[in-house]
Amino acid sequence: MFILFRLLASFMGNFSGPAFNALLADLLPSEKRSQGYATLRIIGNLSAAIGPFLAGFLIGNSFLPLFIVDVILSVSTGVLLLFKMPETKPEEVEKASQQTLKETFGGYGVVLRDRVFVTLVFLIVLTMMVYMNYNTTLSVYLNRMHGISAKQFGYLLTLNAMMVVIFQFSVSRVTAKFKQPHMMFLGTLLYAVGFGMIGLGTDYSFFILSMVIVTIGEVISAPLYQAMAAEFAPVNMRGRYMAFLNISYSFSAAFGPLIAGYGLESGHPQWVWYGGGILCLIAAFGFLGTKMKTPEKKSSLLEEDLESL
Questions:
Q1: Cα–Cα distance for residue pair 240/255, rounded to 1 Å
Q2: Residue 262: pLDDT band with limits 50, 70, 90
Q3: Region at 46 (left for phi over 0; alpha for psi -120 to 50; beta for the rest)
């Protein structure tokens, strides 16, 4: 029963993700989107820090009050969005005819035919397959190879979250002044350095430094993933582009730690991090070569997609 409800919760939890991302892309102009997604990341990290703390007061001798409060907050949020959140679809999309379910799924064919965007998602998958190991196999590696305790590893995660909360918005304001592919290159290059350093590390202070470098790369590049997807997507396809991007995260979370687990069981587990650094380096130069679409090109694509759908 637990597995069944966990699957349902995971499915519905991700159900609205593409819509939220598309909504933000509708609300903000192009030059503000990376800062908007950066703000969402700050809120997410604050929630991850505050939520478990507050949950400790609710648990007591039973977990039931925690789940009751969760239901109340979730339903209240849904009702608020349903009745108070105005529609944000651009006018040209509102004028388009309603699609059938078959046409809706057929719209993903448009996404797959966007070769540049699919290439971008592939580069994100390479990066995220490495990144997903920082809060999974990394703890096993540090404990097994260097005797780092769970408490010490928790401090590393706290360091990451606090850096995101403190620096994310100010860094995003700076990176918004530069070309997105260049910032993606810089952030992913720092991933390559930080994760590669883990394989070289021998003491706790070295791992703190590598986490700082990885987090700097994260605050530079992570908000740009959704922002770049919004830039590539025709206005009538933002939800599906965001959904395709979300699938890449799930794929990375499923297979990145799985592959790394086999590496940890080998005779040279440090190569998990050397290999991760190499993958991030490849992705970094791939991002550097990404060509963003011009407004004229996006407009012509929109017209073609509206006609085909």
A1: 23
A2: very high
A3: alpha
Burial class for 188, CB neighbours closer than 10 Å (0-12, 13-18, 19+): buried
Token pair belonging to 225: 């993933």
Centre a 10 Å sphere on the Cβ of residue 223 and count the other Cβ atoms it contains.
28
Q: How far apart are CA 26 and CA 278, in angstroms?
A: 36
Side chain identity, residue 25: A
CATH homologous superfamily of 2-308: MFS general substrate transporter like domains (1.20.1250.20)
Tokens of 145: 């190879």
Q: Exposed (0-12), middle (13-18) or buried (19+): which is 217, by Cβ within 10 Å?
A: buried
Cβ-contact 194, 274 below 8 angstroms: no
Q: What confidence tens digit (pLDDT) does each residue in 37-74 have?
A: 888 888 887 887 777 777 777 777 778 888 898 899 98
Q: What is the CA radius of gyration of the chain?
A: 21
Token representation of residue 77: 């949020």
CA dist 280 and 191 (Å) reads 6
* Residues in CB range of 292: below 8 A, 6 or more apart: 179, 180, 181, 228, 231, 232
Domain residue spans of the chain: 2-308
The residue length of the chain stands at 309
